[in-house]
Amino acid sequence: MSQEITVHGTVAEGFEAVREEFAAFVAGERHDYEGQLCAYAHGRQVVDLWAGGEADSLYGVFSSTKGAAHLVVALLVQDGTLELDRKVTYYWPEFAAEGKAAVTLRELLAHRAGLVGIDAGFSAEELADDRAIAERLADQKPFWRPGTAFGYHALVIGALTGEVVRRATGRTLQEVYEERVRAPYGADFHLGLPESEEPRYRTAQPMLPTSEQQALMAAQPAGPHTLAAIAFNRHVPDPGTLEDYVNSRLVRAKGPASAGGVASARGLATMYAAAISELADRPPLLKPDTIAEVGQVHSVGYDLVARAHKAYGLGFQATADMWHPVLGAGTFGHSGAGGSQAFADPRSGLAYGYTRRRTAFPGGAAPENEGFVRAVHGAALAR
C-alpha cells in the first residue's frame, strides 16, 4: 500500500486556497511525487510549499534556464552594453557566415534567426558547452530565411545569446548571472552547480504516461530529419533521453544557458521577484521600460519547430499568451520540459516558481500549473 505524501510549508494570509489546490493535486498523484511551489507578491514571499522531497531540494529545470540567461541579456541592454537592433555581427563577426550577416540581436532573442541546430548534430559533450555550440552554429546555414518566421531554438538559444554576451563583456553569461543575480539575492537557481551543492540534487525521473497519453504520443511521430528533430538534437545516433541531459554532472557543472540550470522553486521565484520588485533591500533589477520591452510579444503564431501556436518576447516566453491567459499582459518567464514553470507578472506584482522531479506529460509547463497559477494569481489580486 502506497504511503500518503505530506505537504509541507506555509502560505501567507489570503493564500490558503493555494495550499488547498496544491494539496489536492498531491493527494491524487503517485506515491513518489516530488514537487515545490513558491510565489512572491510585490517582493514578499507568500507561498512556500513542497511535497515528497525537501524545501531546498534542487531539480533540473530544463528550459526554465532560459529565463535566467535572458535576464542577464535584459540587464546588459538596460546598461547600454548591448543594443537590441544592432546586428549580431557587430559583437560576433564570425556569425555572418552562410547568410546570417543581417540578423539583429532582437531577432536572435525572438527565435527568428533560423539557427535551431546543425545538420550533423551535437555530441553530448558539446551540448554541455555553450562555447562549443556557438562555434559550430556560426558556420551553419539557417533553416529558414532569418526574420521571415520563427521557431523554438530549444538547445541553442542560450549559447547564441551567451556568445554575444561574452564578446561584448569578455565574461561568460554564467559569470555575469552569478555576480549580478544569483549571489546578491542568494537565489537557489544555478547556471553551473558547485560540487558542494550536488548532494541536494534530485535525479530527474522519466514521465510515466497513461495508456491514453501513450496513444497520443504514438499518433504524433516526429520524423528523424524534421526541424523538431534537429532543434532537439534527436537526429543523431543514440541521442539519449531528456532525463540523461540534466542528470549529467557535466551539464550541471557547466550550466549551459538553454536548458542546463538547476533550481528549487524558491530559486525560480526569487529570481523573478528580484527582476520586478524591491527585494532584500535592493531596487528591482529591471526598470519599467526594460520590463515592458522584454515582455512585449515579438514572435507569435505558428512555430516552425513546435508546429503549434507559440508566443515569445525577448528570450522569454510570453507566458500569458502561451500558457496562462489569466495573467497580465507583459508577463514574462519560461517553462521547462520537465514540468517546471516560472515567471513575473509585473501588473499584479506576482513572481512564481514551480519544480517537480518526474518529467511531466506532454512536456513544457506541467498541467497542474494551470490550477496553481489561477489560485496564486487570484489571491494576489484579492490582496
Q: Could you please describe the fold and organization of this structure?
A:
The protein has 383 residues and is α+β, with helices and mostly antiparallel strands. The protein has one domain (59-261, 272-345): Beta-lactamase. Helices cover 36% and strands 14% of the residues. The N and C termini lie far apart (42 Å).
Helices and strands, in order, run as EHEEEHHHHHHHEHHHHEHHEEEHEEEH
Question: What is the average per-residue confidence, as pLDDT, rounded to a whole number?
Answer: 95
Task: Give me the secondary-structure category.
Answer: alpha+beta
Portion of residues in helices?
25-40%
Strand fraction equals 5-15%
Main sheet: strand order: 1-3-2-12-11-10-9
State the low-pLDDT regions, or none. none
For CATH, the homologous superfamily is named as: DD-peptidase/beta-lactamase superfamily
Q: How many separate domains?
A: 1
The CATH architecture: 3-Layer(aba) Sandwich
Strand tally is 12
Q: Could you please say which CATH topology applies here?
A: Beta-lactamase
Q: Biggest sheet, in brief?
A: 7 strands, antiparallel
CATH class value: Alpha Beta
Organism: Streptomyces monashensis
Protein name: EstA family serine hydrolase
Domain Beta-lactamase-related: 36-354
Keywords: Hydrolase
